[in-house]
Design goal:
15 helices; 51% helix; 2% strand
Length: 315
């Protein structure tokens, strides 16, 4: 989610397989969206040159399923403590879990720690620029590899997060929401919409993502502020309501996720191993509490010791 140097807006749309018939082409979308981004992009720390590839990677891990305002303070503290991958790799993985705080989905912290170890061992401590090498790092999937290659190194890759998928679904495909999981058709469309030259493609990736985050939002789209509203297939069709599978909710209260969060909070705040009794106090229902604790142990987020003690992982 960085902002590569502004390029000229003169490149073609890319491969011959283009958007659906009657939908706006990449050539029609690139310039207005990038121009809008130039004027409206948020000043975020991972978009600044000094963030480097490691700062971009850390932000991408943290921003998965977590809003920017929650990520910002943790991101700043993380980079101050671990400014390079080797700094994190030299710490116990449990320290990454501790520093993750209340961002949620703490397995991301372990994956980021594992990626830092691999970067240190395989690449001399520098985040690799090669897309295949990024994809080979532990904890790095299709989206994160493309995002780091694009945002940190200005390369040409389709970067499909939820915001981008929603923009493409509405503006090009003419539906309110994309499928629940990324499809081959979406990947094909994203490749077709990519500008040919790398700087413009990287800028387009960041700009379309920001448009989805600020304007073409999930619940309250602001079409009057959208630079491509006049071309948007969904708006021109009268904004038909979503008729696909139900949208997945983000329930939390009373779930195993909530129990896991409370158990981890006790362990993060402790300076040493924690007895079972201290964990038992955080949730009243013993079966769910035991299931949540077993899950944390299975995920490598908690390490059981002798005599009923638990701690964050050291290895």
């Amino acid at each position: 989610m960085t902002a590569p140097t502004k390029p000229p807006h003169t490149s073609p749309a890319g491969p011959a397989s283009g958007p659906p018939s009657g939908s706006p082409s990449g050539e029609c979308l690139h310039a207005p969206v990038i121009d809008w981004f130039d004027e409206n992009a948020r000043d975020l720390p991972w978009r600044r040159p000094e963030a480097g590839a490691w700062g971009v990677m850390v932000s991408e891990f943290m921003l998965q399923q977590t809003p920017v305002n929650r990520v910002l303070p943790v991101y700043e503290q993380w980079l101050a403590r671990w400014p390079r991958p080797a700094d994190l790799a030299n710490e116990a993985p449990g320290e990454a879990v501790r520093a993750w705080g209340r961002l949620g989905y703490p397995r991301r912290a372990l994956r980021l720690h594992g990626a830092a170890v691999a970067i240190t061992e395989r690449h001399g401590g520098d985040v690799p620029a090669d897309h295949a090498q990024l994809l080979a790092l532990p904890g790095i999937g299709e989206y994160t590899a493309a995002a780091v290659a694009s945002f940190a190194y200005g390369q040409r890759h389709p970067v499909l997060d939820t915001n981008v998928r929603r923009v493409f679904a509405r503006a090009v495909t003419g539906v309110q929401y994309p499928p629940n999981a990324t499809t081959a058709a979406e990947r094909k469309l994203a490749r077709a919409l990519l500008p040919e030259d790398e700087p413009t493609a990287a800028r387009w990736a960041a700009a379309s993502m920001e448009l989805g985050a600020l304007v073409c939002t999930a619940k309250s789209e602001s079409c009057h502020r959208c630079p491509i509203a006049a071309q948007c297939a969904w708006r021109l069709a009268g904004k038909p309501e979503h008729d696909g599978p139900p949208r997945r909710g983000q329930t939390y209260a009373g779930t195993d996720r909530q129990v896991r969060g409370r158990l981890l909070a006790v362990l993060r705040e402790a300076h040493g191993p924690v007895p079972q009794a201290a964990l038992d106090r955080v949730w009243h229902e013993p079966v769910q509490r035991a299931r949540a604790l077993d899950g944390l142990v299975a995920d490598g987020l908690v390490e059981p010791l002798a005599d009923g003690l638990y701690r964050l992982p050291l290895t």
